[in-house]
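Problem statement: downstream parser choked on a complex file, so we are re-checking the raw output for the oxa(dethia)-CoA run. The parser issue turned out to be on our end (a line-ending mismatch), but while we're here, posting the original submission so the record is complete.
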Amino acid sequence: MGSTAVIRGLGGALPRRVVTNHHLSILMDTSDEWIKRRTGIKERRHSDETESTSVLATIAARRAMVSAGVDTVGLLIVATSTPDQVCPATAPKVASNLGLHGIAAYDISAVCSGFVYALATASWAIRSGAVTSVLVIGADTFTSLLDPIDRTTGVIFGDGAGAVYISAGTDNEPGAILATTLHSDGRGETLIQVPRTDGAYFEMQGKEVFKQAVSAMSDSVETVLSSVGWAAEDVDSLIAHQANLRILTTVASVTGIHDSKAEIHLDRVGNTSAASIPLAMTNAGTKGHRTPGDKVVLTAFGGGTTWGAVAMTWPIISVVDPH
Ligand code: UT7
């Protein structure tokens, strides 16, 4: 019989190169004032050729293992839509980088919802009794796929990785994953896409994505709140996918969670896709925003379309600042 999955380690990794709004305003028709006012983003990181998805994922995973005080794991999942290669998957390489040859390792592709997808399914694997520990990594390097003159995508995306180590425990331990919900709707396939044609760039229909993100994330937050029996005012922290500050505050207000409870990290890193939630968690951990046992809701929306949420309590954790 399986057990509850409990978060016991957390780590993040960021590329070295900081790209400010001012820098972007030299490259494309935008301004620092517009980007801050319409998105809340001030700067983001761009990876170079030495900072591939697997490299960032490995650093974040190693930090999560150190944070948990462990040196092995039963299963490793990398949530990414920017794998090092079309095939094979990135996860076996990350596992071997960590010296974990022979463990089960696979990728999950759900774009910006990838981490929530990976964390939920990892929790199901522990509940099923199939494994007792999982490294869940969200890592993306979308900036290499952006059209250099597309201001819709250029201003919001950045690169990074974040990871959690989870293992079997009980519902009443800090860090317990208490409820999950996952969804998709392939009718929205073209809202966020990189077509399979030569030289294709990342494309996003920003306005429509904004609307769907607010409604899908709000619905899934309400689903997990009702599964665990928490009222909106019980929630200590809403850690939502970091794409746009206006989306975060709107989801908070639609669900009745006070907007001061929304964790904000996008000002420093932009939208890091599958890395955004675990990186926002590292920010909460390093800034001392959270206390073990706090009631936390994670939620994301991304390409597919895909969306979901997780209700959990804040773990007993130490984490290094990836900035
Ligand atoms: O991570 C997966 C999920 N992704 C998201 O959740 C992203 C969701 N979408 C968004 O965050 C927003 O739609 C964007 C940030 C991408 C765009 O913001 P917006 O407020 O929806 O802008 P808009 O497309 O409605 O454009 C408003 C105005 C337009 O000018 P006019 O027609 O009013 O004169 C645009 O041409 O702002 C202009 N504009 C810009 N101006 C300066 C659009 N993008 C920019 C820009 N810089 N980067």
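For whoever reads this later: The chain has a mean pLDDT of 97.
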